[in-house]
Write a structure and sequence with these properties.
heterodimer, A: mainly alpha, two-stranded antiparallel ribbon, 15 helices, B: alpha+beta, six-stranded mixed β-sheet, five-stranded antiparallel β-sheet, 17 strands, about 40% helix, elongated
Chain lengths: ~450, ~500
């Protein structure tokens, strides 16, 4: 296999950054162990090595399968994942063991995604399948027998011993559908057959599929009381409409719709009212539903600028610290410096994702990268904002950081797609040799065979 | 589409900037407010997993220390009180759920290593070691404390021994007392049970009655009345008081009697050592409400005793307006009855003032605070609280108090080895009807010519016990004698 200097440089950068992320994780892990128990729990060390090893495996997969891809987003994910893993290990040794398993599955899914999807553009053909898959995944938790409620939201599915949150995967499926559909129809939608005041409205039949998909997602999420995901889908839809049509009117329409929907939800649902009341003032409900938020505030204050030090705080006081509230645990033990580092990590990942979108030369690739990046960026904002009381709290995982198999798996698949878009762009721009993919070779071989047969 | 994508990047950046601002608000802006919230016990929890310095007595005896717990305990360190209940009312306790008291409260920063100076010192040792705790060294002697406790026995009351020139407290016992180790257990439920039990006890063992409680002083207050009379020139050593059984003060027809209804009188010296009541009632009336109240205020009565321990009590006499229409109350106040109340420590300070030429020192139990390496963080320098009387008046009072020991009610305080003590006794009658109850007092110092120690002893009068039967001298005197004899035999702690 031949290589190019640009691709080689990107992979070298990636390896260097992953080694740095692994070093940070290893050092943080050692500190956390010293702080909590005065000795490093020996059982967990192999698990940590496995996690770090798996991140190197992901890098090796990029070397073989996505040579020309951007070299920064995987190390950023590795750093977020590593810090999250240390905090999880510090909160619960058992969860750390499980998270190692999830990491294995997630990296496996990452590699599998890169193996199966060799060119990002191939995905556009399956847009309607993705819509069907997304819709089915959204509906799964509502199916009696396998759907489960945890903490009020009915977003879990139990199949035998496996529990997972299909919503984490539905968001990727819907992003794929939106990207595919809008890439095909964006000009039709943007042209605006109707003119109402300052707004150009498209013909309804062009808008209908996407509006239905969005409406369906939001209604289902509301039925499942999963407000965080509803907000995420809403944002994803509005952003992709706006970027694809290049019409700011969709932002205005989105904002109006959002205000209306938010007000209706507030009027209709008591749990929304409670969330808003706690967001505005959690103190009166300290011993009730506001406890978690107040404890998170205490955690940030206790952490101060430099944090208590890993393993030296009391983040176990915050209910569900290892999932939704993991950011507060980081705030307590690593302080403002640590939380700022996480924020910068996400910002750099957003920057990396949007750079991939800008460099992409095809509408589908552009829209897919934009959509996937929006998902990561908004999901992190929604949960961090909820934990810090910038927005009302809606339970959702912090990508790459929170404990949980579904979230980790889905986010690594998302990452693989971003890497694939980046690699496909690099091939087309000639930054790396545009060799035939394995699938294309097989196809070519069959065609040659068929041609050879056809000829006497 | 690139324009929109770039704008999206800016929009997301703005979102994250909002998060960053809010994080600053929580972690820095509102940090103190949130950390001070009583519902936020993270600080306490952290403290219980950190080492904490010791409180040690003047001779190095450890009074409170933290030791590492065995694995499985809720916290890493357990607070211990090796001297049991002997210093409970000085060290106080240190608990997770119920806060801390006394020195454990006021010296918390030093003990945890959290004072600015300790933090600054710790920077040098950042990589060499993390133990930054400080220790608190007291002026108190555990051997004297033990002698005083033994002399007091199970009786309710206090003994306070001080250095009259520095204000250093040498011993301070408050009976009944408690063992802080019982409260400092990590099992919060158990600790709560112990606290509930202690709070329900009649003698209030959690209250350090030596400095947090007030008792009617009875005749021991005559020291103050006499001093005010001398300061205002309304009496002299050779003044003669008629021998009489009854005295009717103004504004009443109800006569005042001497203790036990006896006939009592004679020279100033004689009425002082015989502890007649009527002459001191007359002196108070002669002084009048204004001078009397002004005089007591010079002694610090009405102000909280300025000891370096939390929540001290204030002695009480009254305001001018309380007496102008209530002269009989002023009259009986002259011999420490009525509304007069004194903190035992304050009475030790009164004795100290006479021993110290009329200068009243601020009392203190903390001699020094030390950093972990033994370096001195702070040392208590003796300081004057008040100067209630002139040196000549102090000299006169010393003469009167020597008379009390040699010829009067204070004979039980005559010391071994011919050391001359000066004292004043008191028997405060607590009720006029029903079974008789009295507080037995003695205050004094020794040697009279070159005072080294001042002492105050009070035994609280309960119904139908031996305190009520005797006068202050007979009950409190032997306790003071025991303690002072021990002190002169053991001028410095020998570890016994």
């Amino acid at each position: 296999m031949s290589s190019s200097p640009i691709a080689a440089a990107r992979r070298r950068t990636e390896l260097g950054l992953i080694v740095m992320a692994a070093t940070i994780t290893g050092a943080a892990y050692t500190l956390a162990s010293l702080g909590k128990n005065a000795v490093i729990p020996p059982i967990l060390v192999p698990f940590l090595i496995i996690v770090l090893g798996l991140l190197v495996v992901a890098h090796l997969a990029n070397r073989v399968l996505a040579k020309g891809a951007d070299g920064t987003i995987l190390p950023l994910a590795a750093m977020l994942h590593g810090i999250g893993y240390v905090i999880i290990a510090r909160l619960s040794e058992r969860s750390a063991g499980l998270q190692t398993t999830w990491t294995f599955v997630a990296i496996l899914a990452y590699v599998a995604t890169l193996v199966i999807i060799q060119r990002a553009g191939d995905l556009a053909r399956y847009q309607w399948s993705f819509l069907a898959v997304g819709a089915a995944l959204l509906l799964l938790p509502l199916v009696p027998g396998i759907g489960n409620s945890k903490g009020g939201a009915r977003i879990w599915v139990s199949l035998g011993p496996i529990n997972f949150q299909p919503g984490e995967f539905a968001k990727i499926a819907l992003a794929l559908f939106f990207a595919g559909y809008l890439a095909d129809h964006r000009e039709l939608i943007a042209s605006g057959a109707w003119r109402v005041g300052p707004f150009h409205l498209p013909e309804l039949r062009h808008l209908l599929p996407i509006a239905l998909a969005w409406g369906f997602a939001v209604v289902v999420m509301v039925a499942e009381q999963d407000l965080g995901s509803s907000l995420l889908f809403f944002t994803l839809f509005v952003v992709m409409m706006w970027v694809s049509t290049e019409r700011a009117s969709y932002l205005v329409i989105g904002l109006v719709l959002f205000s209306g929907a938010a007000f209706a939800a507030w009027k209709l649902f008591d749990h929304v009212k409670t969330r808003v009341a706690i967001w505005r003032n959690p103190w009166p409900q300290y011993s009730g539903k506001g406890y978690q938020v107040v404890q998170a505030m205490f955690a940030f204050a206790n952490g101060g600028t430099g944090g208590t030090g890993l393993g030296l705080g009391s983040p176990n006081k915050i209910p569900v610290a290892k999932t939704d509230f993991i950011f507060a645990a980081i705030g307590e033990e690593l302080g403002l410096l640590g939380t700022t580092a996480i924020l910068i990590g996400f910002l750099l990942m957003i920057g990396g994702g949007l750079r991939i979108a800008i460099r992409a030369d095809r509408p589908f690739d552009k829209l897919l990268a934009t959509g996937l990046t929006t998902i990561v960026g908004m999901q992190a904002f929604i949960i961090i904002g909820g934990v810090t009381r910038v927005v009302p709290l809606t339970g959702i995982a912090l990508p790459f950081v929170s404990y949980g198999g579904s979230s980790l798996l889905a986010n690594y698949v998302l990452l693989a797609l971003l890497v694939r878009v980046s690699d496909s762009t690099a091939r087309r721009l000639g930054e790396t040799p545009n060799e035939l993919t394995a699938q294309e070779r097989i196809k070519a071989y069959r065609q040659r065979r068929a041609a050879a047969k056809a000829l006497p | 589409m690139n324009k929109q994508i770039r704008r999206l990047a800016v929009a997301l950046l703005a979102c994250y900037l909002v998060l960053f601002v809010q994080l600053n608000v929580l972690a820095v802006g509102r940090q103190q407010e949130l950390n001070a919230d009583p519902r936020n016990n993270r600080q306490t929890e952290r403290d219980f997993n950190r080492p904490r310095g010791s409180i040690v007595a003047a001779d190095g005896t450890v009074l409170a220390r933290s030791v590492p717990t065995t694995r499985g305990d809720q916290f890493k360190y357990q607070r211990e009180y090796p001297t049991g209940d002997l210093f409970g009312n000085v060290t106080g306790y240190y608990t997770f759920s119920f806060g801390s008291t006394q020195l454990e409260l006021t010296q918390n920063d030093v003990l945890m290593g959290d004072t600015d100076e300790q933090k600054l010192r710790a920077i040098g040792g950042l990589f060499s070691g993390s133990d930054n705790t400080g220790s608190v060294v007291l002026s108190m002697r555990p051997d004297v404390q033990q002698v005083a406790a033994d002399a007091l026995g199970t009786r309710e009351g206090s003994v306070v021994v001080m250095n009259p020139h520095t204000g250093a407290v040498i011993a301070m016992i408050s009976n009944p007392r408690y063992n802080p180790a019982d409260v400092a257990v990590h099992n919060s439920k158990r600790a709560e049970e112990v606290l509930t039990f202690l709070n329900a006890l009649p003698g209030k063992p959690l209250l350090a009655n030596a400095y947090q409680e007030r008792y009617m002083p009875g005749s021991s207050f005559k020291v103050i009345t006499t001093s005010i009379a001398f300061e205002n020139g309304v009496t002299a050593l050779d003044r003669q008081f008629p021998s009489t059984k009854e005295y009717v003060p103004p504004q009443t027809t109800d006569p005042i009697q001497n203790f036990g209804g006896t006939v009592c009188g004679g020279s100033m010296v004689e009425v002082f050592f015989r502890s007649c009541n009527i002459p001191f009632a007359q002196l108070a009336i002669e002084l009048g409400p204004e001078k009397m109240v002004e005089g007591t205020k010079k002694w610090g009565i009405g102000e909280k005793v300025p000891i370096d321990l939390p929540a001290p009590a204030a002695s009480g006499f009254g305001e001018v307006s309380d007496f102008t229409d209530q002269l009989p109350l002023l009259a009986i106040g002259g011999f420490g009855q009525g509304s007069t109340t004194m903190v035992p420590l304050h009475m030790a300070m009164v004795a100290s003032t006479i021993a110290n030429g009329g200068v009243m020192m601020k009392p203190h139990v903390v001699d020094a605070t030390l950093a972990h390496d033994g370096g001195v963080l702070s040392r208590t320098t003796p300081s004057v609280w008040k100067t209630p009387i002139a040196a000549t008046t102090a000299e006169t009072l010393t003469t009167l108090m020597i008379g009390v020991v040699n010829q009067g009610t204070g004979k039980p305080m005559q010391l071994d080895g011919g050391i001359q003590a000066a004292a004043k006794t008191g028997t405060a009658q607590l009720n006029t009807t029903g079974p008789e109850r009295s507080n037995a007092w003695i205050i004094g110092f020794a040697p009279a010519t070159d005072p080294q120690y001042a002492i105050a002893v009070v035994l609280k009068g309960g119904p139908n016990d031996e305190i009520s039967a005797g006068t202050g001298g007979k009950l409190a005197g032997p306790i003071a004698k025991t303690v002072l004899d021990y002190l002169f035999a053991h001028p410095s702690a020998t570890g016994g």
